[in-house]
Specification:
With about 425 residues, the chain is of the alpha+beta class. Helices cover about 35% and strands about 25% of the residues. The protein has 13 helices and 21 strands. It has helices spanning about 5-20, 45-55, 70-80, 90-100, 120-135, 135-145, 155-165, 170-185, 190-210, 305-310, 330-335, 345, 370-375; strands at about 30, 40, 60-65, 65, 105-110, 150-155, 215-220, 225-230, 240, 250, 260, 265-270, 275-280, 280-290, 295-305, 320-325, 350-355, 385-390, 395-400, 405-410, 415. The strands form five sheets. Strands 7, 8, 12, 13, 14, 15, 19, 20 and 21 form a nine-stranded antiparallel β-sheet that branches. Strands 3-1-5-6 form a four-stranded parallel β-sheet. Strands 11-16-17-18 form a four-stranded antiparallel β-sheet. Strand 14 (about 280-290) and strand 15 (about 295-305) form a beta hairpin. Helix 1 (about 5-20) crosses helix 2 (about 45-55), helix 5 runs parallel beside helix 10 and helix 7 (about 155-165) crosses helix 8 (about 170-185). The radius of gyration is 20 Å and the shape is globular.
Amino acid sequence: MTTKFEKSLQKYAELTVRVGVNLRAGQRLLIRGPMGYGVPHSLKPLVHYLAEAAYKAGARFVDVMWGDDQLELLRYKYAPRDSFDEFPLWKGTGPADYCRRGDAILTISATNPDLLAGQDPELVAASTTAAYKGIKELLDSTSRNDVNWCVIAGARADWASKIFPKLTPEKAEAKLWDAIFRMCRVDRDDPVAAWQEHVRDLTSRSKYLNGRQYTALKYTAPGTDLTIGLPKGHLWLAARALAHNGVEFTANLPTEEVFTLPDLRRADGVVAATKPLNHAGVLIEDFSVTFKDGRAVEVKAKKGEATLKKMIETDEGAARLGEVALVPNSSPISQSGLMFYNTLFDENASCHIALGKAYKFTLQGGTEMSDEEFAARGGNGSLIHVDFMIGSGEMNIDGITESGGAEPIMRKGEWAFKV
């Protein structure tokens, strides 16, 4: 007999295949973990339901890249210290092959936020940079929306225990699954219809902002006084996107954001993070970033500062911005009151910005531009793309017009315009 949890897991898988990647008959589907790492074996039931839903949708082939946290820890314990700049070639060429063939990519984000806590930041940085380089073709392809791709989450005991430390690992994992289902609208009678309505609302917000074509955004909040320039021809996007292979898809489940690219040369002021950032298995907490002429010139953190500094030293673009995203404080994820320690969820609880690569599809004609042309128009290039949360119920955001006037976009963390 199928349990209630199994039914929810099955609905989640079907939603991912139908609304997330929106898999087309004849496509192959690759299921992988983030940063080239594999999917934890504890998520086998979810992967099996995903494969079932994919084949029912007409998938030609479904493949999985499996992984194991203990293998990663053993590497840090025993591997030669000069070997952390190595990355298996096949972990990059495999996903890239799917992209070249116009197939679909699904990433399951399910990491232990404290996995690499206490490890040498130099080694963590070397390993992370090697992984970014190893999957660069995949990252470039998804940044252009060459194919239909999606990122979802899967619960696991060690991650869940971080969120619910007072519960047993088993109860914590069950509670995290409930939260994932709720945030992804799986608990609705018709999750697909619920998502279609949600997408319409977000799209109306993006259309309004595209009509305004602000030259900059002004952020003010406790610890934050930041102005971010927007390039001419920037595109505000939300929820649904059209891939070059002709398939409409939803890149993130859940998603509550409306986003675009900033001008890499124009960011000035200081911004305080309102939620911790889990990067490369290290938790960065209570941090701020100061920008001048588009570049991060100072970072401070009470925890994980060394990792944060190493992150922005990855390459020239790592210290500049590649995304600005607007999320109301009333989003379901924010109102849950939970800190997920996972960017997929936490970024959808709060306005956020991203250090590193800008998505070419957020600029008019961007996907047809060379990297040099894109940069000349204000689009940032980097191996990394790391979101961090800056929004709160005290955040005000103004759009700066061509004439220098200011129009309210958000007040006290909520939309200040009607659609």
